[in-house]
Structures
1.
Amino acid sequence: MEETRAFRSAGALNPSEAASRRAEPTAAPLTFSRSRTGSGNGLEGPSCSHKAALHQCPGGVKSLAPLRATLEGTYRHPGTSLLTLMGFRLEGIFPAALLPLLLTMILFLGPLMQLSMDCPCDLADGLKVVLAPRSWARCLTDMRWLRNQVIAPLTEELVFRACMLPMLAPCTGLGPAVFTCPLFFGVAHFHHIFEQLRFRQSSVGSIFLSAAFQFSYTAVFGAYTAFLFIRTGHLIGPVLCHSFCNYMGFPAVCAALEHPQRRPLLAGYALGVGLFLLLLQPLTDPKLYGSLPLCVLLERAGDSEAPLCS
């Protein structure tokens, strides 16, 4: 006991040392702060501990703590569930399945015309083949068809739209989230580089050039499906559009330029792009699909002025 008292008294600070210690500056704690210009009611969080500081991004990027609080508030709300936030809901499901697919088919008007011109059978015979149960049975037993038309669209849209957008949007806003998710989506297709390099299907330069081109148009397509997911609040629309685009492939513009019926075909390409731009906003009007879960999430986070929500 006497040794313990002696140790504590030896380690104690005298009054002058204690005053000098109190006068030393300390590092300001990291805090989350978001406020709007001209308004006094910003969103302020508590001081960050060492664990919370790990989530604080350099350059003043918002912490993940508000996202956690917002999601917890979402789960407590009786009308919103995690599946609803991910686009699994019944409200407005029929327009969400039909209208985005129709919009995408309008964009592919030129390639559809080219496909019908090059098809050896007429329209009636083609419809019979498409609607025949034997044709569908053959497709369902083809693993490549299942991968391209069912598995890849469903899993990729589930990961890069349904899971990623609800996490990014409260931190970055809807606009940056729409353009951030497609970058991950494009990088996810880089495995084709390793496959082509392994089997030496082409020269190294052409392989990387093809990969850069594929990254570009997959990123653009990812931004489009992210836009559809936010505007409709459903996952089914992006999945169906993804499956349709996998079936059509990238438009064969070079073949259209050399086609015997080049003029009507190019007119179909131009008409499809024009109608797509004209109908993009009306066919994705949120009023057609009910309440949008992501927009409700952002309203609870304090951002009620998201342009994609109206």
2.
Amino acid sequence: MEFLTRTKWWAVPVIWLPVVCWLFAMSVRMGHTIQEVILMALFGVFVWTLIEYSLHRFLFHIETRSYWSNTAHYLIHGCHHKHPMDSLRLVFPPAGAAIICVPFWNVVAFFASPSTTPALFAGGLLGYVMYDCTHYYLHHGQPSKDPANHLKRYHLSHHFRIQDKGFGITSSLWDAVFGTLPSSKIAAKLS
């Protein structure tokens, strides 16, 4: 099953950006203006940042005790922490993402109207694409300027210094909100 955890980074935007565009177009065809779709997309991206933080903190770093839960955890996220520079273990495989899209779509559809659901979901999906591409870049890119340089130091600190803090990948916003920013001493070193 481990081969299912390996994905080239470019597969994520190649597969999901056309879906994002199609979903935005659906909301436009259902009567929303471009400005409304942009606002829904921004809201979807914002919600994605909370989902990103929550998944990383509460699922990817869950304490496991049994053989099967340890194995599942390793396949989901542990292999990434064991091999953080493995370029094939930095983005979420599209097949797994497609499966997870179904319940997320249903949650959005429960709270939104039929015409706003596609744009809101597309915003979240766009946030996911941005997250995966950012995550890959933070591991393999060589940013020389902020904010990318800061994000790289922040994320690599999570990997190599203090793994129970700094769960945000694309932003430290939710770490600040929920008190999981690295200590000020470590944060000062990251600046």
3.
Amino acid sequence: MAAAPAGAASDAQTRFGRSVKGLLIDRVTGCGTDVIALTKQVLKGSRSSELLGHAARNMVMQEDAILHSEDSLRKMAIITTHLQYQQEAIQKNVEHSSNLQDQLSHLLK
């Protein structure tokens, strides 16, 4: 009868070993999955950082373009003002010349 308990003990050890191996395989698989997920997250984070860098550079370029446009608009406003002064001067000269023509035509009659 001593052989039966030894066989049962050996059988229990085998089952215990299989269950431990199964648990270890599950743990290793879980850890592998976690490592893959972590790697994906790190890569996604570095990609996000890269995208933020591109966005920052683009924003700086847009800001420069806006500043340049503002400067151009200021210059155009100054030119417009000067052109208005010139137009007024030309209109006065045209009015003055028509008055002179009228006076000249009166004198020549």
4.
Amino acid sequence: MVEIDLQIPSAFDPFAEAKDSGAPGAKEYVHIRIQQRNGKKSLTTVQGLRKEFSYEKILKDLKKEFCCNGTVVQDKELGKVIQLQGDQRKNVSHFLISAGIVKKDQIKIHGF
């Protein structure tokens, strides 16, 4: 009998190595988004912070700094997400950079 060497095709990800390495394009982003509620009300969400950080302490400082209310929500797909009342996108990005939590090139601001 003759043995045949078969290779079954699988989903090939050409960027898999780049994600695992510390390459410049493989960085984790912090996404700051705005969601429209009803009328003029809006909600700012912050996701993608590293798990080592205490979300509750960051939220406490954000609430005190910007005089707004907020909460930490546990999402199945996204993990922990910080929600703040109002349009705080620019304020949050400046706060995260000045506190040294993330670098400027790691922040993506979405909305409007």
